[in-house]
Design a protein that fits this description.
The termini are far apart. A hairpin with a 2-residue loop joins strand 3 and strand 4. The chain is of the alpha+beta class and 168 residues long. The radius of gyration is 34 Å and the shape is elongated. The chain is built from five helices and five strands. A five-stranded antiparallel sheet has the order 2-1-5-4-3.
Length: 168
């Protein structure tokens, strides 16, 4: 009877040790999950994890406004990009989502899942257009006086103008 109690004591000790190990591992996993959740939620870019059927498994807050009404289903415009990435081929594309210009980048994950990063470049494109328009207007505005000055210079160099007009 004493030997059986000793075996039970050893077994109980082993079980207590294993319970402590399991508790420590669960604590570590919880810390890692919380850290990933904070990082994922704190990103400025929209991030999606898409399952093979096109269902969105995860989406951070910046991604939700870019998905439209149904933030559980992948927008049709992203489907070809996700399909390419699902086949193991990373893909990037600039497209329109809910009236915003978005740079979408898709990369394969494990078991057919895909991660999609959405960069809202609407403001950047608008600023590029303003810059391009400004440069075009500035070039046009400078071209007119330069053409006049060039004409006057050619006339002066060609001669045939009296000295009083030439000085003027």
């Amino acid at each position: 009877a004493e030997a059986a109690g000793g075996e039970l004591g050893v077994l109980a000790g082993a079980m207590m040790h294993m319970a402590g190990e399991v508790k420590a591992r669960v604590g570590e996993l919880t810390e890692q999950r919380d850290l990933l959740s904070v990082v994922f939620g704190g990103l400025v870019e929209g991030v999606l994890v898409v399952e093979p059927g096109g269902k969105i498994a995860l989406a951070n807050d910046p991604a939700r406004p870019l998905l439209g009404e149904d933030d559980q289903q992948l927008p049709a415009k992203l489907a070809p990009l996700v399909a390419r990435a699902g086949k193991g081929e990373p893909a990037e594309e600039e497209l329109e989502l809910v009236g915003r210009t978005v740079r979408a980048s898709a990369r394969p994950l494990h078991q057919g899942a895909v991660i999609v990063v959405l960069y809202d470049v609407t403001r950047m494109r608008a600023l590029e257009n303003v810059r391009r328009e400004f440069l075009s207007n500035a070039a046009h505005e400078l071209r007119t006086p330069v053409t006049s000055i060039s004409g006057y210079a050619e006339t002066l160099l060609g001669g045939g103008v009296d000295s009083e007009t030439s000085k003027e």
